[in-house]
Amino acid sequence: MNSTTPNAHSLPRARASINDVAIHAGVSAQTVSRVANSQTNVRPATRDRVLASMQALGYRPNSAARNLKSGRFRSIGVVTFNLRTLGNERTLDAIAFAAAAAGYTTTLLPVADPTQVDVAGAFGRLEEQAVDGIILIMSAEVGSPDELTLTAGLPLVIVDSDAALPHTIVDTDQEQGARLAVEHLLALGHRDIVHVSGPATSFSAKRRAEAYRAVMSEAGLPVPPIIVGDWSAASGLAAGRAIAASERMPTAVFASNDQMALGVMSAFHELGLSVPGDVSVVGFDDADDAEAYWPPLTSVHQNFDEVGKSATRLLIATIDGEAETTKLLIPTQLVVRASTSAPRGR
């Protein structure tokens, strides 16, 4: 035999067709199609025989063709502005698992700049990839509510967004969480409380800062200037040094996330200040390693898994025509650890 002629073992195996399965199982191609599409009008014994033939022949139903006929692609698009934050990372993870459990694939498109043009471009690319709906993790401002009509009719759920947007919204109850943090410090006897906020463009940072101001005002206390960070521990370190250098040292600090709280505590430690002896510190997120900080950090726990699962559930319900526009806020919990205590002298 010529050495250039492929033998039987080197030839690729032809993919089994629906007709091959029908012949092997002794049924019609229509019956095989019914089994492949999980229709119920097939006798159990016949279904078992068809499934056995599918397995024996290595037959895989053409899901793309089935989806094309049904007008569904079983695919969800996800657009986000920042993959590095704890909240986005955990929310994306929950969305992917919830979508997979419901039989959907996910396509992720990160957007470098949170602008109308870039978000519209991401939506357009997802539409070209034939998704059934989109989840937008909108952790920064994009534009006015009436401008966010970019999905050409595709179902849309927004995570971490302003309440005024005319779309289904799922988010952590940011106001409730910030209130828990500040009210905890007030209950311990603190009256001089400084807030280290996230970026000015962040919806969640804005809501936490607004709640901080409201609780302080309701308690009849002056509201010190808010220090703005960028979510990083480095910005928390700079904030902590600035706080320690201020004319009036506060007795407590409420940081808008755990990474900035870590930086604040690090600044205090390097300056010889005790946490919580000299200054109490509260964070927000309850990151997995918050308990391993020194001291272990009191923090507001966000249920990112529930946010992601709820966003996916509501989007699929909207795709199925079973949901109306709604706003769902997931409650938070305060996890009290050793970074807070009553101020000295109380």
List keywords for this structure.
single chain; 346 residues; alpha/beta; 434 Repressor (Amino-terminal Domain); Rossmann fold; 3 domains; disordered N terminus
Short description:
With 346 residues, the chain is an alpha/beta fold. The protein is 40% helix and 16% strand.
Folded structure, characterized:
- 40% of the residues lie in helices and 16% in strands.
- With 346 residues, it is of the alpha/beta class.
- It has 3 domains: 18-61, lambda repressor-like DNA-binding domains (434 Repressor (Amino-terminal Domain), Orthogonal Bundle), CATH 1.10.260; 74-167 and 304-323, Rossmann fold, CATH 3.40.50; 174-303, Rossmann fold (3-Layer(aba) Sandwich), CATH 3.40.50.
- It has a 6-stranded parallel β-sheet with strand order 2-1-3-4-5-11, sandwiched between helices.
- Helix 1 crosses helix 2.
- It is elongated.
- Residues 1-13 have low confidence and may be disordered.
Largest sheet: 6 strands, parallel
Kindly report the name of the CATH homologous superfamily of the largest domain: Response regulator
Supply the helix-strand structural class: alpha/beta
Indicate the mean pLDDT: 86
**Count of the separate structural domains:** 3
Overall CATH architecture of the largest domain: 3-Layer(aba) Sandwich
Q: What is the global morphology?
A: elongated
CATH first level of the largest domain = Alpha Beta
The CATH topology assignment of the largest domain is Rossmann fold
Which stretches are low in confidence, meaning pLDDT under 50 for 5 or more residues running? 1-13
- Secondary structure: helix percent: 40-55%
Order of helices and strands: HHHHEHEHEEEHEHEHEHEEHEE
CA-based gyration radius? 27 Å
